[in-house]
Every structure is written in C-alpha cells, then in structure tokens.
Amino acid sequence: MALMTKDPRPSGRAADDRPGRDGAHHAVATVTELHRSFGATHVLKGVDLEIRRGEFVALLGRSGSGKSTLLRSLARLDAAPSRQLQVDGAVSVAFQEPRLLPWRKVEDNVALALANGPLSRSRRTHARRALDEVGLAEKRDAWPGSLSGGQAQRVSLARALVREPDLLLLDEPFSALDALTRLEMHRLVIALWKRHRPGVLLVTHDVDEALALADRVLVLDQGRVAAQWALDVPRDRRRDHVQTATTRARVLDALGVDADIRTDDTTESGAA
Amino acid sequence: MTALLTPQAVGEAEGLERPGRRRQLRNHADRLSWLRRWVSPVLIVLSWQMLSSAGILTEDVLASPLQILTTGAELIAEGTLQSATATSISRVLSGFLIGATSGLLLALVAGLSRIGEDAVDPPMQMLRTLPHFGLIPLFIVWMGIGETPKIALIAMGVAFPLYLNTFAGIRSVDRKLLEAARTLNLTRRQRLRHVIVPGALPQALVGLRQSLGVAWLSLIVAETVSADSGLGYLINDAREFLKTDVIVVGLAVYSLLGLLTDSLVRLIERRALAWRS
C-alpha cells in the first residue's frame, strides 16, 4: 500500500529493487531546512529531504514550486549554504536539454566528464563503455548535432553516469521527447539505475512518469515538501496496479488537480 | 573537402537510399555551372584585347591584357615584383600580428569579466566609430612617413573587427553549456578551453575574415599615401610615367593576396567548424 508519511524513510520496500549493497542506508544527500530567495521572492521555505544511496526519488510540483531551484542547489549551481545542504560523493546532472558540446564528438563529450576524476587516464575506455550501455556505441564518432533528440538525451545520460555518481540529478530530462521515445528512456533509466545504484532525484511535472519510476514521490508546494508517498510496486509498473492508482489519485490531489477532471486519461493534468 | 562533406554525408546517409549517386550528379551539374560562369569574363578580356589591338584603347589609358601579361613576366624576371610583394606582405604581417594580438587580448579581457567589460568596451565602442583612415594625418604627425605609421594603420584596422566579433562571440556562448561544464567539475581553464573558445570561434572567424580584408585595404591606402618600397611604391612610380601595365600588375597582385588570405580563412573555417553541418 502507498503510505502517506512524514517520515522520509518509509519501510516496506520491494526486494527486487533493493539488492543488498553496502551503505544502502547511507544518505548521499541531506537537505535540512533549506531556504532560497532570489530578490524578494522566497522560493524555498525550509525544505527537508534525504536521498539514500540506490534510492529513486521523484519530485513533483507545479511551475514555480521551487523544484528546479532545489535541484540546482543540489547540483551546486547556486551558492546554497553548506550546513543546509550536504552531498556525500560525486553528483551528476542530466538536464532537460542534452547540453552536449556541439564541437566535440559524442565520445569526447562523454570522456570530458572524466577529465578531472580518478578515471581520467582511462576515460576513453570508460566513455565507450558508457555509450555502449545506452546503446549508442556506433555513434561515438558522430557530431552531437547529427543525433535525434532521444539519442542526444541518451548521450547526456551516458555522460552523467560515466562518472559513477553517488547522486544523479535528472531535471525533466524526458519532457522534450515524444511519448514513445520517453517510454524507451524510462526503461533505460531504470536499467542503468539498477546497474549503478546511484541515489536519483528526478524532477518532473509528469505524474505518471514519477509513478512509473520512483521509489518515493514528493510533492513540492510553495517552497516546502507538502507530501510524499513510497511506492513498492515492482517495475515495469502497470498503471492500473492498485497501489499506483491510489497514489496517483493522492498525488493529483496534493497538486490541487480538481477531482472532477481526474479521470483515467488525465495523464497530463499534473503538468504544471 | 573531406572535412566539409563529412557531416553532410552523415545526414544524407540517413535520409537517402543512394547518396553516392546523388552526389555524383550534383558534382556534374556543379562543373557545368562553373564552366558557364567563365564565359562572360573571358568575353570581356577578349573584347578588351580587341579594343587595344584596334588602337581604340590606348596604352596610357589602359594597357592591353597581353601587354600586362608581358610586363608581369618581365617584372617577375627582374625580381622587382617579388621584392615589392615581399615588402608589402611583411608590412601586413607585422600590422596584422600587432592588431590581432591586441584585439584578441582586449576581447578576452572584456568577454571574461564584468570589470574588464566595463573598462575595455566603452572606449573600444567609441573608438570604432572613428574612420581609421581619417587617422592618417595624425599618424604622420606622430610617426613620420616611415614604416611605423603604415604598420600602425594596419594594426588599427585589424584590431577592431577582431575585438568586436570575438567579444560578441564570447558573450554569445550558451550559458547552459557553461553550467553543464560546471556540473562536470571542469576547472575555469578547462571551461575556457572546451566551452568558451570553441563557442566563440565561429564569430571570431567572421572577425578574422573582416580584419584581413581591412588589413589589405589599409596597406593599399598607406602605401598610396607614401612609400619608397613595396607594391604601392611600384604602382605610384608607374603612375608618374603613365605605365598602366605596371599599375594593373600591381593591382592584380593586391587582389590575389586578398583572395589568398580569404581562402586561407575559409580553409580554417572548414576545418574548425566541421561540427556545423
């Protein structure tokens, strides 16, 4: 059953998603009472969040709820105070746009992620392996400009994962893709996550995407974590699974989507 | 050529069944239109030669094409043309190096820091409105009529287009790419090398092309105003004796040099910007 909980560590997880790994209960990111303001706008008003190694967390929220701000703080793209925000280990980000350097070949783009890491010396080998993992080994000599949207996003994922991050931040990385490509990407992300076991924070405005992928779904509202649910339905998840359906109703409720239009085909109603 | 065709070839290979055949056909058509484009220039030269041979176009107005060719060959045989050209090239080269270095350095300072922009950009924007040929009298007052004012004039002409375009290029670099580079833990220097420089390069190369054009123009103006050696001297000396054949030979060398540097930049563009299909 979906648990409505204020405890960030819900119990009762699905065994198939949780192969034993050392430090599985170790937090890779701890956010405590995080406040962020830009000028007069108070965007985050005391966010508490913990992401554990190997945990897949989805963050939902309407536009302006502060979910991108939270992700940017975790990515260290703004100067959030360190006592409110602790990240243990390497962080990688995949953005909504692939953000590949158009003047570097695909493989070079991936290898660049290892320029300063401990894997620097063997970065070509690692880059090739990462491209192989996302099924684009044959594109390693291509210019990013020649890739399709889905392919470019897969390269972006390879670039994020080649660093073996402890925390993987996904900033609406599938929202610009067509529906079929998006489904393929969901499968790929789950497969990669199972193999590498980073903690994942997926920021999305697609409720069904969150329900399909995450162990835990958070709703951010007015700068705070308004509610969260744990999901222990095995993947690939069916949308009509009772727990998924119940959680879906509650998430839509938390997002303030009117009950009357909350029929089964309001897939995009949660979209902000 | 290969570098230019590669990205296109990739694009075509996806969309077309037989890209090789299609390219062949297009090359054939290209060759035909290339030939067609030569018809009118050849006709003009032929009628020019006929007018000269008929005595309608006299030599003190404009020498015949054959005469010009002969004179060109003589000037080469004497070595006059080579030494004059070498002198002019070395002027352009020194002026270009000084102007390009200062233009690029200023663009980097202005492009990479806000303080640099505030310090460098306003005076540069004000100075660029000056027509730089208008500075010749001032340069002569300051530096006399030797090599210095010529090189200074070329350097001035080169620095501005290179500064303006490189600065704009640096500022146009996609901030999202810089952000992505930061999440990859690239150092400031690495971000400069992998993101800012290649991102600014297309616009900087536009500046390079403009500045080389201005460099040759500045050379011609400077050498026409005063010179005791170089192509400009050759031309001015010939003017005194109404030797239009020598003048035309000098002009031909000027335009050939301009053409040469322009195709050099095109070559650099083709290789450095191969990623843009």
Q: Would you mind describing this structure in some detail?
A:
The complex is a heterodimer of chains A (272) and B (277). With 272 residues, chain A is α/β, with parallel strands linked by helices. Chain A has helices spanning 67-74, 106-112, 123-133, 149-161, 179-196, 207-213, 242-254; strands spanning 3-4, 27-38, 41-52, 56-61, 85-87, 91-94, 167-171, 199-203, 216-221, 224-230. Chain A has a seven-stranded mixed beta sheet, sandwiched between helices. Chain A has a three-stranded antiparallel beta sheet with strand order 3-2-5, with helices on one face. In chain A, helix 2 (106-112) crosses helix 3 (123-133), helix 2 (106-112) packs parallel to helix 4 (149-161) and helix 3 (123-133) packs across helix 4. Chain B has helices at 2-15, 19-53, 65-78, 80-112, 114-127, 136-143, 147-171, 175-183, 188-225, 231-240, 244-272. The longest helix of chain B has 38 residues, at 188-225. The model of chain B is unreliable at 1-17 (pLDDT under 50). The chains are: A alpha/beta (272), B mainly alpha (277). Chains A and B meet through strand 6 of A and helix 1, helix 8 and helix 9 of B.
By DSSP, the count of extended strands of chain B is 0
What overall geometry of chain B do the principal axes of the alpha carbons give? flat
Distance between the termini of chain B: 13 Å
Q: How many helical elements of chain B?
A: 11
> Structural class, from helix and strand content of chain B?
mainly alpha
Q: Report the major sheet of chain A.
A: 7 strands, mixed
Strand content of chain B: under 5%
Helix content of chain A: 25-40%
Flag low-confidence runs of chain B: 1-17
* Poorly predicted tracts of residues of chain A: 1-22, 265-272
Average of per-residue pLDDT values of chain A: 85
Question: Topology as H/E string of chain B?
Answer: HHHHHHHHHHH
- Rounded to the nearest angstrom, the radius of gyration of chain A is 18 Å
- The coarse overall form of chain A would be globular
**In what range is the share of β-strand residues of chain A?**
15-25%
Seen as an oligomer or otherwise, the chain set is heterodimer
Radius of gyration of chain B: 24 Å
Major sheet details of chain B: none
